[in-house]
Amino acid sequence: MSAVMNNQAKNGSQSHSPQNAPLGTSKGANEETLAKQLALVIDLNVCVGCHACVTSCKQWNTSGSAGPLADLNAYGANPSGTFFNRVQTWEAGEYPATETVHFPKSCLHCEDPPCVPVCPTGASYKRKEDGIVLVDYDKCIGCKYCAWACPYGARELDEERQVMTKCTLCVDRIYNEKLAPEERKPACVMACPTGARLFGDVKDPESEVSKAIRERGGYSLMPEWETQPANQYLPRLIREAQEF
Amino acid sequence: MHPAWSVIFFTVLAGMGQGFFLMLVRADAAGADPFALAIGGAASVVLMCIGLACSFFHLGHPMRAWRAMAMWRTSWLSREVIVLPLTIGVVALWSLAQLYGWQALGEKTTLWVGAAGVLLCFALWFCTGMIYACIRFLREWAHWLTLLNFTLLGWMSGATLFAAYWEGLYGANESDRAIAGALTLTLAGAVARLASLARNKNLKPLSTPQSAIGMKTAKLKQMSQGATGGSFNTREFFHGKSALVVRNVKWIALGLAFALPAVLLFGATKAPALWILVLAAVSQLLGLLAERWLFFAQANHPQNIYYQAVA
Ligand code: SF4
Ligand code: SF4
Questions:
Q1: Residues linked to residue A125 through DSSP beta bridges, in sequence order
Q2: Most exposed: A118, B18, B148, B261, by fewest CB within 10 Å?
Q3: Do the domain assignments include residue B149?
Q4: Domain boundary among B115, B134, B153
Q5: Could you tell me if residue B139 is inside a domain?
Q6: What pLDDT digit, counting tens, does each position of B132-143 carry?
Q7: Could you tell me if B175 and B47 lie in one domain?
Q8: How big is the A-B interface in CB pairs under 8 Å?
């Protein structure tokens, strides 16, 4: 095997300034840093794109007290539904050195979430105790403004319930005393067969996620918008094409 | 972004009502007939109310709309939701004050109420503009030109409507000031909108597939977005029309909202006639609907990087 080349964008901590200074920006409403911030760290090296996290997320979250995640046209030609988590597939590099990269995407529970201050009802909020960004479905009027204000497309309006939905980090699992302690993790983390999804407190320097970020170059998506995503990604190591 | 007709009608109609009211207050200051002003004020209220009704169609839960007043400390949408009914209320009060010759605050009562209404109209334009301008990564919107355009385009369409109204009521001798005002505002609106179109044309996206995924490889291509039948993300953030359609809408907007009304208004400064001014107002209304469609269609959301390929 030839040399392993580390090819990720190591820009997680770099500070970019948008060229156009924002107007009365929706930024900065959440300036205090929280003592605890739960998050996922996703290892792009081991994700095989099996979508187990997608289906287990859907299964858990469509079955809860908050109501189902609607599927439209589920058995038709163009099925469409509400999902909190999607796995995408990308192709990186130039042939023959191309690599298939499976890329799971869900709400990043940003530390400075632009989706929160824009919400006119207060339905969209960030929890002080653990940093999870949630939607109060009973308050949401379905105006979609928060979805416009998320650069990552992490929020989806449920077409049947007409409220905004998104990843909750399985807030109804992780503190659930009816579950065995080892099951108090997000459904996606439980389901992942390759262990590509790590879960924990990124503010605790000794946690598994903090160590992974520190030791393996964890980075943020779209750092240019300064949302400070809590979820981080572990860079894909791209191997050079092997000469035979 | 996907242009929503509810929001297009709301912003165009309410903006026209606000601009119309501004011209009524100017006429009041110049000592116009209270009855004509009262009827005009009622028309302004009707325009804003139709706009308000349209905006409800944008909501998934219209019955909960009252909740949107809660977060005025942080949300421009919430501020708009507060300022809009206030504006409608003050304009309605002003119309009644005209109708009944209300003088509770002395002889100038209607002018005081009118001044409050004018401030609220500007505040409303500001809130509406800021709803869009404050989203920093929608770069076509995140600029002071957005605020200027919402204000000027609403004002100009109201001024053209007012010129037609005044021409219909009083004929040539009385309407020349109104026509000149509408023409000036239409030209100013055209300059501001052309400036924002020019700016949009030169915008380079700050987000790239590389920053979205976090890989530096020069070639990075999406093979699958994780769904085959589309999702909220493919419906809400794309206009779904070809580049040709967008270009045509742009020319329709520029022609109907600015070029044709400017020619008609200029003609009316020479030979005022009601039909010319009505035509100018209708053309401007239709042109602004196209303009607002374009405003949404041209806004390029960074999330779209994640939704390019179906497999
Ligand atoms: S990823 Fe989007 S929805 Fe989630 S916290 Fe950040 S801005 Fe909000
Ligand atoms: S859709 Fe719901 S959560 Fe989002 S901004 Fe509107 S009210 Fe708030």
A1: A134
A2: B148
A3: no
A4: B134
A5: no
A6: 999 999 999 999
A7: no
A8: 234
Task: Please give the number of the atom of ligand 1 that sits closest to the Cα of A167.
Answer: 4
What is the spatial distance between Cα B110 and Cα B98, in angstroms, rounded to a whole number? Answer: 7
Domain count for chain B, please give it: 2
Backbone angles phi, psi at A217, to 5 degrees: 70, 45
Q: pLDDT (tens digit, 9 = 90+) per residue, A26-73?
A: 454 445 689 999 999 999 999 999 999 999 999 999 998 788 999 999
Q: Are residues B114 and B193 in the same domain?
A: no
Whether B189 and B305 map to the same domain: the answer is: yes
Chain A residue with CA closest to B225: the answer is A88
On whether residue B71 sits in a domain, the answer given is: yes
Structural domain including B207 reads 163-311
- ipTM at complex level: 0.94
Stretch B148-163: mean pLDDT: 98
The shortest C-alpha distance from B50 to chain A (Å) reads 18
Percentage above 70 pLDDT, chain A: 84
Residues of chain B found within 8 Å of residue A221, distances taken between Cβ atoms:
211-214
**Interchain CB distance below 8 Å, A78 and B229:** yes
Q: What is the mean pLDDT of residues A171-191?
A: 96
Considering only CB atoms, A145 lies closest to which of B65, B77, B211, namely B77
Cβ pair B110, B270 in contact under 8 A = no
Which of B190, B165, B176, B147 is CA-nearest to residue B284?
A: B190
Rounded to an integer, what distance in angstroms lies between the CA atom of residue A183 and that of residue A168?
A: 16
| Among candidate residues B308, B73, B284, the one with its CA nearest the CA of residue B164 | B284
Q: Please tell me whether residues B309 and B189 are part of one structural domain.
A: yes
Answer whether B125's CB lies under 8 Å from B154's CB: yes
Is A8 a residue whose pLDDT tops 50?
no
Structural domain includes residue B114 = yes
User: Is residue A104 a contact partner of residue A232, using CB atoms and an 8 Å limit?
Assistant: no
| Cβ–Cβ gap A9/B138 under 8 Å | no
pLDDT at position A215 over 50: yes
A21-35, A179-193, B10-24, B152-166, range with the lowest pLDDT: A21-35
Residue from A26, A119, A161 to probe ligand 2 pocket by mutation (most atoms less than 8 Å from CB): A119
Task: Assess contact for A42 and A194: CB atoms under 8 A.
Answer: no
From chain A residues 41-70, the ones with a CB under 8 A of any chain B CB are 51, 54
Across the range B220-233, mean pLDDT stands at 93
- Does position A244 have pLDDT exceeding 70, yes or no? no
- Residues B181 and B98 occupy one common structural domain: no
The pLDDT confidence band at residue A238, using thresholds 50, 70 and 90, is low
Q: How confident is the model at residue B101 (pLDDT cuts 50, 70, 90)?
A: confident
Residues B305 and B250 in one domain: yes
B173 plus B310 within the same structural domain = yes
Amino acid type, B235: R
